[in-house]
Write a structure and sequence with these properties.
heterodimer; A: eleven-stranded mixed beta sheet; B: about 100 residues; about 5% strand; flat
């Protein structure tokens, strides 16, 4: 089996046994990138030399008999809104096209300390605003399962990289579904952790009360292995939880006993693609077993939550994006005075979706509208949290589809922002409530496109998410988890 | 686009320091209108007595000891400056308010 086709756990194992060197592993991924990247365009910046440097260091340390982290030598791709010192970090925006962070995000420091080679920075919707990666100021990334389709967003590039075998793992960020939705559209496992579980220091902010760094992987085990590394309290992030990190791998294979599962009626419903509903329900039938109690549960606030999100997130974004003024970093438009410089810089540096969200947020926060818009939205958010709390009194886990449809065609929704926003309908309320949520592959549509299932747990119950995901993976069976990449011009490339 | 809505769009664009083209202004007018629609929708919910959530986790403010710690080196702080003059960010003059 090719090295680039292996999971992180498999790579970790053969590296530890010295059956292969990290340099060989990294080279396998670099060759894979060379072969398929021109057709997929997952990366904004490639860092092969740095990756090989780290690989060499890890190999040397291993040769000396040093005890290394299980992920030492396992490469990873990073979404381009996470600061990497001395490596261009753009948020897929013209505004930060030339930005070189002077520091590493805390999560990056963790990866480096563990010895993980960084393959590069992945494409995304500009400033994490979007659900298709079409809002990137640079280029569109393509879904490896169907090159005419979007990979989802905003962590689209990361999803493409893992799905196509260009990286075994990737970091992404999720504000209103930006990890789970692309994971679902690309057949991956995507985790949004509990708010505060993973440090946001160095994650370039979009909406501070919603943003979380998370993980895209091929399966639950890989995801848990990486969460063990990046989760934890960070004094540099005042919203980070001062709570210990359990070993997420330890309980993964424990038997699930008497689990009460709530199927969210609105997320398996009539307004979703029938194929998605069918495939998701099929996997959920695995819970028809005396060990489980599965029942439909209603979440009537679902649509109100979506509306509240589309006031809260832009409001926070309008504040977070105020720093892009051409003064200290990033793009600057020439002007005779500072005020004009600000307006010209921002008018020409931001893309259309970013501008829309800034305008929306500024409006919702402005005098006369603040109470009716922003405060009301925050009150609805409280009600959403309360609704989950009430449901979790009777259920241990909530399930439903991860996205209402399979991957849509490039260009399909880009002209109707409101349509685009609806693709996050399953993911938004969990984000509003700060809950941990995992998307995983449940099956395929008749077009061969991945269908995702989503699991949501109470705060800090990522261990339960992984346990259940593992159980479902076994029940689902070994589906073709990798896209069969047949590429143009006779240069066929199969996994 | 009505005169009122134009003024509203220009006011918000001014607050946000966003220079918009005429076409963009028209688009934004529609957008602001839909924000109001969204607000109307969430107003359907009775939120009497409900506290707004600013933060989902109940964390008290995170403090640290008032001890000076190393900060970023000045050169690093300035390394991305579009224009720089010694240890200053160099910007166009600040126009006096009309």
């Amino acid at each position: 089996m090719k090295l680039y086709a292996m999971t992180a756990v498999q790579l970790s194992s053969i590296l530890a046994k010295k059956e292969v060197s990290s340099v060989e592993v990294v080279n396998s991924f670099l060759e894979r990138i060379e072969s398929v990247e021109p057709y997929l365009k997952a990366f904004i910046t490639h860092t092969p030399a740095l990756a090989l440097d780290m690989a060499k260091t890890v190999d040397q340390r291993r040769a000396k008999g040093e005890k290394l982290h299980p992920l030492a030598g396992v490469p990873i791709a990073i979404k381009d809104n996470i600061c990497t010192q001395n490596i261009r970090t753009t948020c897929a925006s013209k505004m930060l096209d030339n930005f070189i962070p002077p520091y590493d995000a805390t999560v990056i420091t963790s990866l480096k300390n563990a010895g993980m080679p960084l393959l590069g920075k992945t494409n995304m919707d500009e400033f994490a605003m979007g659900s298709s990666t079409e809002n990137s100021a640079f280029f569109v990334s393509r879904n490896p399962w169907d090159l005419s389709c979007v990979p989802g967003g905003s962590s689209g590039g990361s999803a493409v990289a893992v799905s196509a075998g260009m990286a075994p793992l990737a970091l992404g960020s999720d504000t209103g579904g930006s990890i789970r939705q692309p994971a679902s559209l690309c057949g991956l496992t995507g985790l949004r952790p509990t708010y505060g579980r993973v440090s946001r220091y160095g994650l370039i902010p979009f909406a501070s009360s919603l943003d979380q760094v998370g993980i895209l992987s091929l399966d639950a085990r890989d995801n848990a292995l990486l969460l063990n590394l990046i989760a934890g309290h960070d004094p540099m992030d005042s919203t980070s939880l001062p709570v210990d990190v359990p070993d997420y791998l330890r309980t993964m294979d424990s038997e699930l006993q008497n689990l009460r599962i709530g199927v969210i009626k609105q997320n398996i419903g009539p307004d979703f693609s029938p194929e998605v509903t069918t495939v998701v329900k099929e996997l959920l039938s695995a819970f028809n077993d005396s060990n489980f109690f599965m029942e439909e549960v209603s979440f009537p606030l679902r649509d109100y939550g979506l509306n509240a999100y589309y006031i809260i997130a832009p409001s926070e974004a309008s504040s977070n994006l105020a720093r892009y003024d051409g003064v200290r970093f990033g793009y600057r438009a020439e002007a005779e005075d500072t005020d004009t410089m600000f307006s010209k810089t921002r008018g020409t540096g931001f893309g259309p979706e970013a501008k829309r969200r800034i305008m929306t947020g500024t409006y919702a926060l402005s005098a006369g509208y603040y109470d009716a818009c922003y405060v009301q939205a925050m009150k609805v958010r409280t009600l959403v949290r309360r609704e989950y709390e009430a449901i979790f009194k009777n259920f241990d886990l909530l399930v439903g589809a991860a996205t209402p449809t399979t991957a849509f065609k490039i260009g399909d929704k880009i002209d109707s922002p409101l349509q685009m926003y609806l693709s996050d309908i399953c993911n938004i309320n969990d984000a509003l409530a700060g809950l941990p949520s995992l998307a995983m592959l449940s099956g395929f549509s008749s077009q061969g496109l991945p269908v995702g299932l989503q699991l949501t747990a109470p705060p800090l119950k990522e261990d339960l998410l992984f346990q259940v995901a593992c159980f479902l993976e076994e029940k689902r069976g070994d589906l073709a988890k990798r896209p069969n990449l047949e590429l143009n011009e006779g240069e066929g490339s199969r996994v | 686009m009505t005169a009122d809505l134009t003024r509203e769009v220009e006011h918000i664009a001014r607050l946000a320091r966003l220079e918009l083209t005429e076409d963009e202004k028209i688009e934004m007018a529609g957008l602001l209108s839909s924000v109001l629609d969204t607000a109307r929708k969430i107003q359907e919910i009775d939120t009497t007595g409900v506290e707004p959530t600013a933060h989902v986790i109940d964390l008290a403010a995170a403090f640290r000891e008032d001890v000076v710690k190393p900060s970023l080196y000045l050169n690093r702080v300035l390394q991305n400056a579009p224009r720089r003059n010694k240890s200053y960010f160099y910007v166009p003059r600040i126009k006096s308010l009309e």
